[in-house]
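The methods section describes the discrete structure representation at length, but only in general terms. Each protein is reduced to its one-letter sequence and a matching series of backbone shape codes. I believe one specimen quoted in the main text would settle the matter. An entry of this sort, consisting of the sequence and the corresponding backbone structure tokens, reads as follows.
***
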Amino acid sequence: MSLPDVEYAVLSHSVSASLPVSISDVTKRIGQVMLRTATLEEFHKRSEETLSWFGERITVVPSGLGVGELRAMQPALGSDKALLADYRRDDR
């Protein structure tokens, strides 16, 4: 994974854990991204691009599904068993 200006990213919400309907403050987060840009305009642009990139790759599974329904979804969700995802730039 390589995204412009992303220095560090971590997804820290465990697989199969439930999220609240709304998140009211930063203590209830599912991940963090640190961006480094030269201008505020670049920051806003990269923020939107990074959110879009993650949004295209994260699957939210509806709550209340039975075991059979969850098992049927597994092939589409992939076989990665990692509970946490971590990314650090390796080109520095």
